[in-house]
Design goal:
This protein has 671 residues and is of the alpha+beta class. It folds into six domains: 91 residues, Phosphorylase Kinase, domain 1 (2-Layer Sandwich); 215 residues, Transferase(Phosphotransferase) domain 1 (Transferase(Phosphotransferase), domain 1); 62 residues, Trypsin Inhibitor V, Chain A (2-Layer Sandwich); 71 residues, Trypsin Inhibitor V, Chain A (2-Layer Sandwich); 51 residues, 2-Layer Sandwich (Trypsin Inhibitor V, Chain A); 70 residues, Trypsin Inhibitor V, Chain A, CATH 3.30.10. Helices cover 32% and strands 21% of the residues. The protein has 18 helices and 30 strands. The strands form ten sheets. It has a six-stranded antiparallel sheet with strand order 1-2-3-4-6-5, sandwiched between helices. Strand 9 and strand 10 form a beta hairpin. Helix 4 runs antiparallel to helix 6 and helix 4 packs antiparallel against helix 9. The longest helix is centred in the middle third of the chain and has 22 residues. The radius of gyration is 45 Å and the shape is elongated. The N terminus is likely disordered.
C-alpha cells in the first residue's frame, strides 16, 4: 500500500468501463475523441476503446456524429474494415469498442519511405478497395479517407478505420456547417457544395494512390485554403511527371479516380477495384499477396535503411520488350510511333477509353504547355482575389488563452472581429480565465467574423454517487466514471455494520467524510475508507485462542483477569477495543475470568443475631434467621438482640461465593 498517491495524468487509465473494459494505455487523441488500448475482461482480449471528449459528449450534435460511427461500422463485416464490437454511454462517458489492430498506419509507412513501388502500391490499393467496396455495398460513404485511417497489420492486412464521418449514401445532403475531413483528400464537390457520395471516396483513393506512387501530395500550399482552391479548380497531375518510372496504367487509374466532375469517376469502389485488378493482370501482378507489404513493414520497423532493404521500392519494369529489328533508327522510331498509335486505338475501345484518352491528350499535345502557362497565370490571379478580397481573405486568430476575458475581447475587436462569450467547465484553466476561442487559435478566419471567447467556469460540480456499502472496486469505477480521481490508498477499519471489502465512507481532499449527493469538483481526489468487517468475537474462548484469533486479524491483545460468577475460570469475559474507530494494529483489552470470588464463613457462635449478621456482612456474606426482627413480648428488646447463634449453615470455616447467604441458627433463653 503506497504512502503517497500521484494522480494519473489521464483519469481514465486504470479505470474499468461498465465493469468490463479496463483502460490500460492511451494510443491517440483526435479532435473528437481519445483512443485507448483496453482489455475486455469478459472475453479476455485486447480492444481499442474510443472515448468522446467530455465537452463534446455534452453536445447532442457531436454525440449523434459519434454514435453514427458505431451504427455505420457495425453494418460492415469485412476483413479489410476495422470491426466494431460494442458501443455505450455511462455517467456522461460515450465510448465505442473497436477491434484492436496492431501495426502502423499508411501515413507512418509513407513517412519512413520516399515512395512505394508499383507492386506494393497495388497490394495496398487492392485491399483498400475491397474494404471500401463493402462499405459502398452497404450504402455507407466514409467521407474521411486518408493515410492516417488506413491501418497496416504486421501480417500485411490492410484495414480501413474511423467511420466517424460516414453517412448513409442515401442521406448525402448539403450542410452549412464547416466541412469535416482532411482538406488534402477532399473532393471538389465536397469543397464546392458540401455534398459527398461514393465518388467522393473514390477521389480520396485517387489522391492516396498518387501519394503512394510519388511520396508527396498532388497539391501543396501554405494554408489549407490554398490546397482547397487547387482541388476545386485543377486536375491532379500524372504521377509519372514526378516519378518517370511509374507505369502508364497507374497514371490512368489516378486520372480516372480524380476527375474534377464526379460523373467522370468510377461510380463506386467495386468499379475501380475491377479496373485495378485488370491493371494488375496487365502488369503481371495477378497473384497478389501481402508478402511485399509484410516485407516492407518489417524492414521499416527494424530501422533497416540499407540498399537491400529498400529494393522493394524499386520501380517494376513493365514496358514490353520490342522484338529484335535491323531497321534503321528513323524506321524504328516510326515503327514505335505506329505501335503506340495502334495501342491507343485499341485502348479507346476498352472500358478505360475515357481514362486513356485523357492521358494520351495530355502527353501528345505540345500546345498544352502554353495553355498550362496561361491557366497557371489565371489561377494565380484567381488565388490572389480569393485570398485577398474574396472568400479566402482572413486573419489568423491570435492566442488569448489564459488571459482575462476583457483583454481577450479587446485584442480580437482591435483585429476587426466581433465577439461573444460562453462559459465552459475546465479542470485545467482557473475560473474566470480564457480557455481559448472558437474557431481555435491559429485558424484563418474571414474578416469581421464573430469569434466566441470560451471562459472557464472552473471544474464541474458533480454530485457524489451513492457508493456507501458497495464493493470497493466497483465504487472506485463508479467514482472514476463520474469524473473523480480515486486515491490508490484505501484506509481500512473494523465495522460491525458494513461487510468486509465494502465502502464505509468517502473522504475528500481535506480528509473529511463526504455525504452522498454532495456536489464535489470534477477531478477531485477522493479516498475510500473500506471495512475490515466486525472485530472477531472471542467471548467464552481461552486466552490463547482469543489471542490467536485477534492477532490473525491484525490486532494487538492486552489481557487482564476478573472474578466472574457466570464465566468459568480461564474463559474470556469480554474483549473491547482501546479506541474507536478501530483499525489494524490497535489494542483489544481482553478480560479473562478468575471464576467466582470465594470467602470463608466466619465463626459467629455465641454472638447475638445482630452481631453475627454484622460479622457475616464484613466477610462479604449476608445473614438470615428464622427469628423475626421484632421485640420480644412484654419487653422493649428485639429477638435479634437477645437470641444467640448456636451454629451457621454453611458451617464456620466453609468456603462459599462472596455474597452468599448464611443461615444463623439460634436459641432464645429469656432467663
Amino acid at each position: 500500500m503506497s504512502d503517497s498517491f500521484i494522480p494519473p495524468s489521464d483519469p481514465l487509465i486504470g479505470s474499468t468501463l461498465d465493469a468490463r473494459y479496463r483502460i490500460d494505455e492511451r494510443l491517440a487523441r483526435g479532435g473528437m475523441a481519445t483512443v485507448y488500448l483496453a482489455r475486455d475482461l469478459r472475453l479476455d482480449r485486447p480492444v481499442a476503446v474510443k472515448v468522446l471528449h467530455a465537452h463534446l459528449a455534452e453536445d447532442e450534435t457531436f454525440r449523434v456524429k459519434f454514435t453514427r460511427e458505431a451504427l455505420a461500422s457495425a453494418r460492415l463485416s469485412d476483413p479489410n474494415v476495422v470491426n466494431v464490437f460494442d458501443q455505450g454511454e455511462s455517467e456522461g462517458i460515450c465510448y465505442l469498442v473497436l477491434e484492436y489492430v496492431p501495426g502502423q498506419t499508411l501515413r507512418g509507412l509513407l513517412q519512413q519511405q520516399p515512395r512505394l513501388s508499383p507492386g506494393v502500391t497495388l497490394e495496398i490499393l487492392d485491399q483498400l478497395l475491397e474494404g471500401l467496396s463493402a462499405a459502398h455495398r452497404a450504402g455507407i460513404v466514409h467521407r474521411d479517407l486518408k493515410p492516417e485511417n488506413i491501418l497496416l497489420t504486421p501480417d500485411g492486412r490492410v484495414k480501413i478505420a474511423d467511420f466517424g464521418l460516414a453517412r448513409a449514401a442515401s442521406r448525402a445532403t448539403s450542410s452549412n456547417s464547416s466541412l469535416m475531413g482532411t482538406v488534402a483528400y477532399l473532393s471538389p464537390e465536397l469543397l464546392r457544395r458540401g455534398q459527398a457520395d461514393e465518388r467522393s471516396d473514390i477521389y480520396a483513393v485517387g489522391i492516396i494512390l498518387f501519394e503512394m506512387l510519388t511520396g508527396q501530395q498532388p497539391f501543396t500550399g501554405e494554408h489549407p485554403e490554398h490546397i482547397a482552391y487547387q482541388h476545386a479548380t485543377e486536375n491532379v497531375p500524372l504521377p509519372s511527371e514526378i516519378v518517370p518510372t511509374v507505369p502508364t496504367e497507374l497514371d490512368d487509374l489516378v486520372v480516372w479516380a480524380t476527375r474534377t466532375e464526379p460523373e467522370d469517376r468510377p461510380a463506386n469502389a467495386r468499379e475501380l477495384l475491377d479496373e485495378t485488378r485488370r491493371v494488375e493482370d496487365e502488369l503481371g501482378l495477378t497473384a497478389l499477396s501481402p508478402h511485399g507489404v509484410v516485407d516492407l513493414i518489417h524492414r521499416t520497423e527494424s530501422g533497416d535503411r540499407s540498399e537491400n532493404a529498400t529494393q522493394v521500392l524499386e520501380p517494376t519494369a513493365i514496358a514490353p520488350e520490342l522484338p529484335p529489328t535491323t531497321a534503321t533508327e528513323p524506321e524504328a522510331a516510326a515503327s514505335s510511333a505506329v505501335a503506340v498509335a495502334e495501342r491507343l486505338s485499341t485502348d479507346l475501345n476498352t472500358p478505360r477509353s475515357a481514362v486513356v484518352r485523357g492521358t494520351a491528350r495530355r502527353r501528345r499535345r505540345g500546345w498544352m504547355l502554353s495553355f498550362a502557362t496561361l491557366l497557371i497565370t489565371a489561377l494565380v490571379a484567381g488565388a490572389g482575389w480569393f485570398l485577398g478580397d474574396g472568400p479566402g481573405a482572413g486573419i489568423v486568430l491570435p492566442g488569448v488563452a489564459g488571459t482575462a476575458p476583457a483583454d481577450a475581447q479587446t485584442t480580437l475587436e482591435q483585429l476587426g472581429f466581433t465577439t461573444a462569450q460562453v462559459e465552459e467547465n475546465s479542470i485545467d484553466v482557473p475560473k474566470g480565465q480564457v480557455i481559448g476561442t472558437d474557431p481555435a487559435e491559429g485558424t484563418r478566419v474571414p474578416k469581421k467574423s464573430q469569434v466566441t471567447i470560451r471562459i472557464s467556469a472552473g471544474p464541474r460540480l458533480i454530485p457524489l454517487p451513492s457508493v456507501l456499502g458497495a464493493d470497493a472496486d466497483l465504487a472506485s469505477s463508479a467514482l472514476t466514471e463520474a469524473g473523480f480521481v480515486v486515491a490508490a490508498e484505501r484506509p481500512e477499519r473494523f465495522d460491525s455494520t458494513v461487510s468486509a471489502g465494502s465502502v464505509i465512507e468517502v473522504l475528500g481532499t481535506d480528509s473529511a467524510a463526504i455525504a452522498v449527493g454532495t456536489e464535489v469538483e470534477e477531478a477531485s481526489t477522493l479516498t475510500l475508507v473500506v471495512s475490515l468487517g466486525a472485530i472477531p468475537s472471542v467471548t467464552g474462548s481461552s486466552l490463547s485462542e482469543a489471542t490467536a484469533t485477534l492477532e490473525s486479524a491484525g490486532l494487538v491483545v492486552a489481557s487482564s483477569e476478573a472474578y466472574s460468577d457466570d464465566v468459568p475460570a480461564g474463559q474470556v469475559i469480554s474483549a473491547k477495543p482501546a479506541r474507536t474507530p478501530t483499525t489494524k494494529g490497535d489494542t483489544i483489552n481482553v478480560v479473562v475470568s478468575k471464576g467466582p470470588e470465594m470467602v470463608t464463613v466466619p465463626d459467629v457462635s455465641g454472638k447475638t443475631l445482630t452481631a453475627a449478621q454484622a460479622a457475616l456482612q464484613a466477610a462479604g456474606l449476608s445473614g438470615t434467621s428464622n427469628y423475626p426482627q421484632q421485640n420480644v413480648p412484654l419487653t422493649n428488646t428485639s429477638y435479634w438482640d437477645v437470641v444467640k447463634v448456636t451454629s451457621t449453615n454453611p458451617a464456620a470455616g466453609s468456603q462459599v461465593k462472596k455474597g452468599s447467604s448464611v443461615t444463623m441458627n439460634g436459641m432464645f433463653n429469656p432467663f
